[in-house]
Write a structure and sequence with these properties.
Layout (H helix, E strand, L loop, with lengths): L16 H16 L8 H13 L3 E6 L4 E8 L4 E7 L26 H17 L4 E10 L7 H8 L2 H5 L4 E11 L3 E3 L8 E12 L3 E2 L9 H18 L7 E10 L5 E2 L2 E10 L2 H21 L7 E8 L6 H15 L4 E3 L3 E4 L12 E9 L1 H8 L17 H17 L3 E2 L10
Parallel strand pairs: 3-4, 3-5, 5-15, 6-13, 7-14
Antiparallel strand pairs: 1-2, 2-4, 4-16, 6-15, 7-11, 7-12, 8-10, 9-11
Helix pairs in contact: 1-3, 3-10, 6-7, 8-10
Protein backbone atom coordinates (compact mmCIF):
# COMPACT_ATOMS: atom_id res chain seq x y z
CA UNK A 1 0.00 0.00 0.00
CA UNK A 2 1.04 3.58 -0.58
CA UNK A 3 2.34 5.62 2.30
CA UNK A 4 -0.29 7.72 4.03
CA UNK A 5 -0.33 11.40 3.05
CA UNK A 6 0.36 14.10 5.64
CA UNK A 7 -2.30 14.51 8.30
CA UNK A 8 -4.18 11.43 7.08
CA UNK A 9 -7.13 10.41 9.23
CA UNK A 10 -6.95 6.85 10.54
CA UNK A 11 -9.59 4.63 12.08
CA UNK A 12 -7.93 4.84 15.48
CA UNK A 13 -7.85 8.66 15.39
CA UNK A 14 -11.08 9.83 17.08
CA UNK A 15 -12.76 12.76 15.44
CA UNK A 16 -12.52 16.04 17.35
CA UNK A 17 -15.48 16.16 19.70
CA UNK A 18 -16.79 19.55 18.46
CA UNK A 19 -16.76 18.31 14.86
CA UNK A 20 -18.73 15.18 15.67
CA UNK A 21 -21.13 16.97 18.01
CA UNK A 22 -21.96 19.59 15.39
CA UNK A 23 -22.49 16.95 12.69
CA UNK A 24 -24.77 14.87 14.93
CA UNK A 25 -26.84 17.91 15.90
CA UNK A 26 -27.27 18.84 12.24
CA UNK A 27 -28.25 15.28 11.33
CA UNK A 28 -30.91 15.06 14.05
CA UNK A 29 -32.40 18.40 13.03
CA UNK A 30 -32.48 17.56 9.33
CA UNK A 31 -33.98 14.13 9.96
CA UNK A 32 -36.81 15.68 11.97
CA UNK A 33 -37.49 18.34 9.31
CA UNK A 34 -37.33 16.66 5.86
CA UNK A 35 -38.29 18.51 2.68
CA UNK A 36 -39.42 17.07 -0.64
CA UNK A 37 -37.66 17.57 -3.96
CA UNK A 38 -37.92 21.17 -5.10
CA UNK A 39 -38.86 22.41 -1.62
CA UNK A 40 -35.50 22.14 0.18
CA UNK A 41 -35.40 25.76 1.39
CA UNK A 42 -34.80 25.08 5.09
CA UNK A 43 -32.36 22.25 4.41
CA UNK A 44 -30.30 24.40 2.06
CA UNK A 45 -30.30 27.17 4.63
CA UNK A 46 -28.97 24.90 7.37
CA UNK A 47 -26.19 23.62 5.13
CA UNK A 48 -25.32 27.11 3.91
CA UNK A 49 -25.11 28.43 7.47
CA UNK A 50 -22.82 25.62 8.58
CA UNK A 51 -20.51 26.03 5.58
CA UNK A 52 -20.30 29.76 6.25
CA UNK A 53 -19.29 29.06 9.86
CA UNK A 54 -16.49 26.87 8.53
CA UNK A 55 -15.07 29.65 6.37
CA UNK A 56 -16.66 28.85 3.00
CA UNK A 57 -17.95 31.49 0.63
CA UNK A 58 -21.51 30.34 -0.09
CA UNK A 59 -23.69 30.99 -3.14
CA UNK A 60 -27.37 30.05 -2.95
CA UNK A 61 -30.10 29.37 -5.53
CA UNK A 62 -27.64 27.88 -8.03
CA UNK A 63 -29.52 26.39 -10.95
CA UNK A 64 -32.79 28.17 -10.25
CA UNK A 65 -33.73 25.92 -7.33
CA UNK A 66 -32.33 25.44 -3.85
CA UNK A 67 -28.84 24.40 -4.95
CA UNK A 68 -25.94 25.83 -2.99
CA UNK A 69 -22.18 25.95 -3.57
CA UNK A 70 -19.62 26.54 -0.83
CA UNK A 71 -16.03 27.42 -1.74
CA UNK A 72 -13.08 26.94 0.61
CA UNK A 73 -10.07 28.45 -1.19
CA UNK A 74 -6.70 27.40 0.21
CA UNK A 75 -4.28 28.60 -2.43
CA UNK A 76 -3.18 27.27 -5.82
CA UNK A 77 -3.79 23.58 -6.35
CA UNK A 78 -6.35 20.98 -7.38
CA UNK A 79 -10.10 21.60 -7.16
CA UNK A 80 -12.12 18.92 -5.35
CA UNK A 81 -15.93 18.88 -5.36
CA UNK A 82 -17.84 17.16 -2.55
CA UNK A 83 -21.47 16.61 -3.42
CA UNK A 84 -24.40 15.97 -1.10
CA UNK A 85 -28.13 15.79 -1.78
CA UNK A 86 -30.79 17.82 0.05
CA UNK A 87 -34.17 16.22 -0.63
CA UNK A 88 -36.31 13.70 1.23
CA UNK A 89 -39.03 11.29 0.05
CA UNK A 90 -42.84 11.09 0.24
CA UNK A 91 -42.65 8.24 2.77
CA UNK A 92 -44.35 8.07 6.18
CA UNK A 93 -41.69 7.26 8.78
CA UNK A 94 -42.20 4.15 10.92
CA UNK A 95 -38.90 3.95 12.81
CA UNK A 96 -40.16 4.99 16.22
CA UNK A 97 -37.06 7.14 16.69
CA UNK A 98 -37.18 10.02 19.15
CA UNK A 99 -36.02 12.32 16.35
CA UNK A 100 -38.38 10.93 13.69
CA UNK A 101 -39.82 13.15 11.00
CA UNK A 102 -42.21 15.84 12.21
CA UNK A 103 -43.52 16.38 8.67
CA UNK A 104 -46.51 14.15 7.86
CA UNK A 105 -45.86 11.86 4.91
CA UNK A 106 -42.27 13.01 4.37
CA UNK A 107 -39.11 11.22 5.52
CA UNK A 108 -35.37 11.15 4.95
CA UNK A 109 -35.67 7.53 3.87
CA UNK A 110 -32.59 7.57 1.63
CA UNK A 111 -29.96 8.98 4.00
CA UNK A 112 -29.50 12.41 2.46
CA UNK A 113 -29.58 13.92 5.95
CA UNK A 114 -26.65 11.67 6.84
CA UNK A 115 -24.81 12.74 3.69
CA UNK A 116 -25.21 16.44 4.56
CA UNK A 117 -23.97 15.93 8.11
CA UNK A 118 -20.97 13.92 6.89
CA UNK A 119 -20.02 16.60 4.34
CA UNK A 120 -20.05 19.33 6.97
CA UNK A 121 -17.90 17.18 9.26
CA UNK A 122 -15.40 16.55 6.46
CA UNK A 123 -15.22 20.26 5.64
CA UNK A 124 -14.64 20.99 9.34
CA UNK A 125 -11.70 18.55 9.39
CA UNK A 126 -10.19 20.01 6.24
CA UNK A 127 -10.73 23.61 7.35
CA UNK A 128 -8.95 22.88 10.63
CA UNK A 129 -5.95 21.38 8.81
CA UNK A 130 -5.45 23.98 6.08
CA UNK A 131 -1.73 24.09 6.80
CA UNK A 132 -1.42 20.53 5.43
CA UNK A 133 -2.97 20.95 1.96
CA UNK A 134 -3.34 23.31 -0.98
CA UNK A 135 -6.18 23.75 -3.44
CA UNK A 136 -9.88 24.54 -3.50
CA UNK A 137 -12.74 22.65 -1.92
CA UNK A 138 -16.14 23.00 -3.58
CA UNK A 139 -19.13 21.76 -1.59
CA UNK A 140 -22.33 21.31 -3.59
CA UNK A 141 -25.72 20.89 -1.94
CA UNK A 142 -27.85 19.38 -4.70
CA UNK A 143 -31.64 19.55 -4.66
CA UNK A 144 -34.02 17.22 -6.48
CA UNK A 145 -31.87 14.10 -6.62
CA UNK A 146 -34.88 11.87 -6.08
CA UNK A 147 -36.48 13.21 -9.26
CA UNK A 148 -33.17 12.92 -11.18
CA UNK A 149 -33.39 16.60 -12.13
CA UNK A 150 -31.08 18.37 -9.69
CA UNK A 151 -27.63 17.59 -11.08
CA UNK A 152 -28.48 18.68 -14.62
CA UNK A 153 -30.09 21.84 -13.30
CA UNK A 154 -26.93 22.76 -11.39
CA UNK A 155 -24.67 22.01 -14.33
CA UNK A 156 -26.77 23.50 -17.12
CA UNK A 157 -29.03 26.25 -15.77
CA UNK A 158 -26.65 26.99 -12.89
CA UNK A 159 -23.51 26.77 -15.10
CA UNK A 160 -21.76 25.14 -12.15
CA UNK A 161 -18.41 24.43 -13.79
CA UNK A 162 -18.35 27.72 -15.69
CA UNK A 163 -18.93 29.77 -12.55
CA UNK A 164 -16.94 27.84 -9.97
CA UNK A 165 -14.31 26.01 -12.03
CA UNK A 166 -14.02 22.54 -13.49
CA UNK A 167 -13.04 20.20 -10.65
CA UNK A 168 -10.14 17.78 -10.82
CA UNK A 169 -12.32 15.25 -8.99
CA UNK A 170 -15.94 14.93 -7.83
CA UNK A 171 -16.54 12.79 -4.75
CA UNK A 172 -19.73 11.46 -3.17
CA UNK A 173 -20.93 8.64 -0.96
CA UNK A 174 -24.34 7.09 -0.32
CA UNK A 175 -25.95 5.41 2.66
CA UNK A 176 -26.63 1.71 2.12
CA UNK A 177 -27.96 -1.20 4.23
CA UNK A 178 -24.46 -2.63 4.75
CA UNK A 179 -22.78 -3.07 8.16
CA UNK A 180 -22.23 0.31 9.80
CA UNK A 181 -18.55 1.13 9.95
CA UNK A 182 -17.86 -0.27 6.47
CA UNK A 183 -17.47 1.28 3.04
CA UNK A 184 -18.01 -0.40 -0.34
CA UNK A 185 -16.53 0.38 -3.75
CA UNK A 186 -17.13 -0.96 -7.24
CA UNK A 187 -14.39 -3.50 -7.97
CA UNK A 188 -11.95 -2.63 -10.73
CA UNK A 189 -13.16 -3.87 -14.11
CA UNK A 190 -16.62 -4.72 -12.77
CA UNK A 191 -20.05 -3.57 -13.96
CA UNK A 192 -21.29 -0.02 -13.35
CA UNK A 193 -21.90 0.75 -9.69
CA UNK A 194 -25.46 1.89 -10.41
CA UNK A 195 -27.88 1.48 -13.27
CA UNK A 196 -28.93 4.18 -15.68
CA UNK A 197 -32.54 5.25 -15.54
CA UNK A 198 -35.40 6.75 -17.54
CA UNK A 199 -38.42 8.22 -15.72
CA UNK A 200 -41.74 8.40 -17.56
CA UNK A 201 -45.19 9.89 -16.93
CA UNK A 202 -47.98 8.26 -18.95
CA UNK A 203 -51.59 9.49 -19.20
CA UNK A 204 -54.35 7.14 -20.38
CA UNK A 205 -57.48 8.90 -21.62
CA UNK A 206 -60.93 7.39 -21.19
CA UNK A 207 -64.52 8.60 -21.21
CA UNK A 208 -65.87 9.37 -17.79
CA UNK A 209 -69.41 8.79 -16.61
CA UNK A 210 -71.69 7.12 -14.10
CA UNK A 211 -70.53 3.80 -12.65
CA UNK A 212 -73.98 2.37 -13.39
CA UNK A 213 -73.56 2.89 -17.14
CA UNK A 214 -70.23 1.24 -18.03
CA UNK A 215 -71.48 0.68 -21.60
CA UNK A 216 -71.38 4.44 -22.13
CA UNK A 217 -67.93 4.92 -20.66
CA UNK A 218 -64.36 4.04 -21.55
CA UNK A 219 -62.83 3.08 -18.21
CA UNK A 220 -59.24 4.30 -17.82
CA UNK A 221 -58.88 2.36 -14.56
CA UNK A 222 -59.25 -0.95 -16.37
CA UNK A 223 -56.99 0.42 -19.11
CA UNK A 224 -54.35 1.28 -16.49
CA UNK A 225 -54.62 -2.12 -14.81
CA UNK A 226 -54.13 -3.94 -18.10
CA UNK A 227 -51.23 -1.67 -18.98
CA UNK A 228 -49.43 -2.30 -15.68
CA UNK A 229 -49.67 -6.07 -16.09
CA UNK A 230 -48.58 -5.94 -19.72
CA UNK A 231 -45.62 -3.68 -18.89
CA UNK A 232 -44.17 -6.32 -16.57
CA UNK A 233 -44.20 -8.95 -19.32
CA UNK A 234 -42.89 -6.46 -21.88
CA UNK A 235 -39.84 -5.86 -19.70
CA UNK A 236 -39.07 -9.57 -19.69
CA UNK A 237 -39.59 -9.90 -23.43
CA UNK A 238 -37.34 -6.92 -24.25
CA UNK A 239 -34.47 -8.12 -22.06
CA UNK A 240 -32.03 -10.98 -22.62
CA UNK A 241 -31.94 -13.51 -19.72
CA UNK A 242 -28.40 -12.49 -18.76
CA UNK A 243 -29.13 -8.77 -19.02
CA UNK A 244 -30.01 -6.85 -15.86
CA UNK A 245 -32.93 -4.51 -16.37
CA UNK A 246 -35.95 -3.44 -14.35
CA UNK A 247 -39.23 -1.73 -15.29
CA UNK A 248 -41.30 -0.53 -12.34
CA UNK A 249 -44.67 1.22 -12.18
CA UNK A 250 -44.42 3.13 -8.93
CA UNK A 251 -47.64 5.11 -9.03
CA UNK A 252 -51.14 4.73 -10.48
CA UNK A 253 -53.56 7.63 -10.03
CA UNK A 254 -57.18 7.62 -11.19
CA UNK A 255 -60.54 8.81 -9.96
CA UNK A 256 -61.93 10.12 -6.69
CA UNK A 257 -65.05 8.05 -5.90
CA UNK A 258 -66.26 4.51 -6.43
CA UNK A 259 -69.45 5.54 -8.22
CA UNK A 260 -67.77 7.69 -10.88
CA UNK A 261 -65.76 6.43 -13.84
CA UNK A 262 -62.91 8.94 -14.26
CA UNK A 263 -61.85 10.34 -17.61
CA UNK A 264 -58.14 9.59 -17.28
CA UNK A 265 -55.51 7.59 -15.37
CA UNK A 266 -51.87 8.47 -14.77
CA UNK A 267 -48.91 6.10 -14.45
CA UNK A 268 -45.43 6.94 -13.19
CA UNK A 269 -42.81 4.39 -14.20
CA UNK A 270 -39.07 3.96 -14.29
CA UNK A 271 -36.79 1.89 -16.48
CA UNK A 272 -33.38 0.85 -15.14
CA UNK A 273 -30.55 -0.90 -16.96
CA UNK A 274 -26.77 -0.92 -17.18
CA UNK A 275 -26.42 -0.02 -20.87
CA UNK A 276 -27.92 2.75 -22.97
CA UNK A 277 -29.10 0.18 -25.50
CA UNK A 278 -31.13 -1.66 -22.85
CA UNK A 279 -32.59 1.60 -21.53
CA UNK A 280 -33.68 2.60 -25.02
CA UNK A 281 -35.18 -0.83 -25.78
CA UNK A 282 -37.20 -0.94 -22.55
CA UNK A 283 -38.42 2.62 -22.94
CA UNK A 284 -39.54 1.89 -26.49
CA UNK A 285 -41.27 -1.31 -25.32
CA UNK A 286 -43.04 0.58 -22.55
CA UNK A 287 -44.35 3.22 -24.95
CA UNK A 288 -45.53 0.52 -27.35
CA UNK A 289 -47.51 -1.20 -24.56
CA UNK A 290 -49.08 2.04 -23.33
CA UNK A 291 -50.23 2.98 -26.82
CA UNK A 292 -51.41 -0.55 -27.68
CA UNK A 293 -53.49 -0.98 -24.52
CA UNK A 294 -55.10 2.40 -25.09
CA UNK A 295 -56.01 1.41 -28.63
CA UNK A 296 -57.29 -2.00 -27.52
CA UNK A 297 -59.53 -0.33 -24.93
CA UNK A 298 -61.02 2.07 -27.46
CA UNK A 299 -59.51 5.18 -25.88
CA UNK A 300 -61.01 8.34 -27.38
CA UNK A 301 -57.54 9.78 -27.93
CA UNK A 302 -53.93 8.72 -27.89
CA UNK A 303 -52.19 8.45 -24.53
CA UNK A 304 -49.47 10.78 -23.32
CA UNK A 305 -46.00 9.32 -22.84
CA UNK A 306 -43.46 11.82 -21.51
CA UNK A 307 -39.88 11.13 -20.46
CA UNK A 308 -39.32 13.42 -17.46
CA UNK A 309 -35.73 12.52 -16.52
CA UNK A 310 -32.76 10.48 -17.68
CA UNK A 311 -29.54 9.49 -15.99
CA UNK A 312 -26.71 7.34 -17.37
CA UNK A 313 -25.18 4.39 -15.54
CA UNK A 314 -22.74 5.32 -12.80
CA UNK A 315 -19.20 4.29 -13.73
CA UNK A 316 -16.64 5.67 -11.25
CA UNK A 317 -13.27 6.68 -12.70
CA UNK A 318 -10.93 3.67 -12.21
CA UNK A 319 -7.75 5.60 -11.39
CA UNK A 320 -9.43 8.01 -8.97
CA UNK A 321 -11.38 5.15 -7.36
CA UNK A 322 -8.16 3.19 -6.79
CA UNK A 323 -6.60 6.16 -5.00
CA UNK A 324 -9.70 6.79 -2.89
CA UNK A 325 -10.09 3.12 -2.05
CA UNK A 326 -6.47 2.99 -0.94
CA UNK A 327 -7.13 5.91 1.40
CA UNK A 328 -10.19 4.15 2.80
CA UNK A 329 -8.25 0.93 3.35
CA UNK A 330 -5.65 2.87 5.31
CA UNK A 331 -8.44 4.52 7.25
CA UNK A 332 -10.43 1.41 8.16
CA UNK A 333 -8.32 -1.63 7.29
CA UNK A 334 -8.82 -4.03 4.40
CA UNK A 335 -11.62 -5.97 6.09
CA UNK A 336 -13.94 -2.97 6.32
CA UNK A 337 -13.67 -1.85 2.69
CA UNK A 338 -15.89 -4.13 0.62
CA UNK A 339 -16.52 -4.87 -3.05
CA UNK A 340 -20.01 -4.03 -4.27
CA UNK A 341 -21.53 -5.50 -7.40
CA UNK A 342 -23.70 -3.34 -9.63
CA UNK A 343 -26.98 -2.15 -8.15
CA UNK A 344 -30.19 -1.43 -10.03
CA UNK A 345 -30.60 1.67 -7.89
CA UNK A 346 -30.01 4.83 -9.85
CA UNK A 347 -28.59 8.32 -9.30
CA UNK A 348 -28.15 11.56 -11.23
CA UNK A 349 -24.57 11.87 -9.93
CA UNK A 350 -23.12 10.61 -13.28
CA UNK A 351 -23.96 14.01 -14.80
CA UNK A 352 -21.10 15.51 -12.77
CA UNK A 353 -18.72 13.52 -15.01
CA UNK A 354 -19.70 15.70 -17.98
CA UNK A 355 -16.71 16.56 -20.15
CA UNK A 356 -14.60 13.75 -18.72
CA UNK A 357 -14.39 15.01 -15.11
CA UNK A 358 -13.18 12.10 -12.92
CA UNK A 359 -15.73 10.98 -10.32
CA UNK A 360 -15.51 8.59 -7.38
CA UNK A 361 -18.53 7.23 -5.52
CA UNK A 362 -18.81 4.68 -2.74
CA UNK A 363 -21.35 3.22 -0.34
CA UNK A 364 -21.46 4.01 3.37
CA UNK A 365 -22.73 1.17 5.58
CA UNK A 366 -25.51 2.22 7.97
CA UNK A 367 -26.89 -0.98 9.56
CA UNK A 368 -26.14 -1.52 13.25
CA UNK A 369 -24.85 -4.87 14.55
CA UNK A 370 -28.17 -5.93 16.11
CA UNK A 371 -30.35 -5.63 13.00
CA UNK A 372 -27.53 -7.02 10.86
CA UNK A 373 -27.16 -10.17 13.01
CA UNK A 374 -30.92 -10.64 13.14
CA UNK A 375 -31.23 -10.47 9.36
CA UNK A 376 -28.28 -12.83 8.83
CA UNK A 377 -29.89 -15.33 11.20
CA UNK A 378 -33.07 -15.39 9.14
CA UNK A 379 -35.05 -12.84 11.11
CA UNK A 380 -36.54 -9.58 9.92
CA UNK A 381 -34.66 -8.19 6.90
CA UNK A 382 -32.80 -4.91 7.20
CA UNK A 383 -35.11 -2.08 6.06
CA UNK A 384 -33.58 -0.79 2.82
CA UNK A 385 -33.40 2.76 1.52
CA UNK A 386 -36.86 4.20 0.70
CA UNK A 387 -38.53 1.97 3.32
CA UNK A 388 -40.54 3.50 6.22
CA UNK A 389 -38.26 1.69 8.68
CA UNK A 390 -34.92 2.86 7.21
CA UNK A 391 -32.89 3.94 10.26
CA UNK A 392 -29.11 4.43 9.97
CA UNK A 393 -26.98 3.66 13.01
CA UNK A 394 -25.75 7.24 13.27
CA UNK A 395 -23.19 6.61 16.02
CA UNK A 396 -21.33 4.09 13.87
CA UNK A 397 -21.99 5.43 10.36
CA UNK A 398 -21.54 9.17 10.71
CA UNK A 399 -17.93 9.22 12.02
CA UNK A 400 -16.88 6.88 9.21
CA UNK A 401 -18.73 8.97 6.64
CA UNK A 402 -16.96 12.14 7.81
CA UNK A 403 -13.51 10.54 7.84
CA UNK A 404 -14.09 8.79 4.47
CA UNK A 405 -14.92 12.04 2.67
CA UNK A 406 -11.99 13.91 4.22
CA UNK A 407 -9.56 11.11 3.42
CA UNK A 408 -10.79 10.94 -0.18
CA UNK A 409 -10.46 14.70 -0.65
CA UNK A 410 -6.87 14.61 0.64
CA UNK A 411 -5.98 12.14 -2.12
CA UNK A 412 -6.61 14.90 -4.67
CA UNK A 413 -5.69 18.08 -2.81
CA UNK A 414 -2.00 18.93 -2.95
CA UNK A 415 -0.03 18.34 0.27
CA UNK A 416 1.64 21.41 1.72
CA UNK A 417 5.30 20.93 2.57
CA UNK A 418 6.36 21.12 6.19
CA UNK A 419 8.50 24.19 5.46
CA UNK A 420 5.56 26.03 3.97
CA UNK A 421 3.13 25.39 6.80
CA UNK A 422 2.09 28.41 8.74
CA UNK A 423 3.15 30.85 6.00
CA UNK A 424 -0.17 30.89 4.12
CA UNK A 425 -3.68 31.24 5.36
Amino acid sequence: MDAAPPHATRADDPLPRPVLRSAVELYLDLHAHPELSGHEHRTAGRLAARLTELGCTVTRSVGGGHGIVGVLDNGPGPVVLLRTELDALPVTEATGLAYASTVPGVMHACGHDLHIAAVTGAVALLAASRDTWRGTLLVVGQPEEETLNGARSLLEEGRLYERFGVPDAVLAQHAAPLPAGTLAHAPAGGPPLMAGSVAVEAVLHGRGGHAATPHLNVDPVLMAAATVLRLRTAAAEATAPAEQAVLTVGSVRAGERGNVTPDHAELSLTVRAFTQDALDRLTTAAERVVRAEAAASGAPRAPGFTVTARSPALVPDPELTARVRGAHERLLGLGRVLDLSGSSATEDFPHFAAGGVPVAYWMLGTTGPGPWRTARAGGDPVPPNHAPGFAPDVRAALPVGIAALAAAARQVLAPRSAEGRGTDS
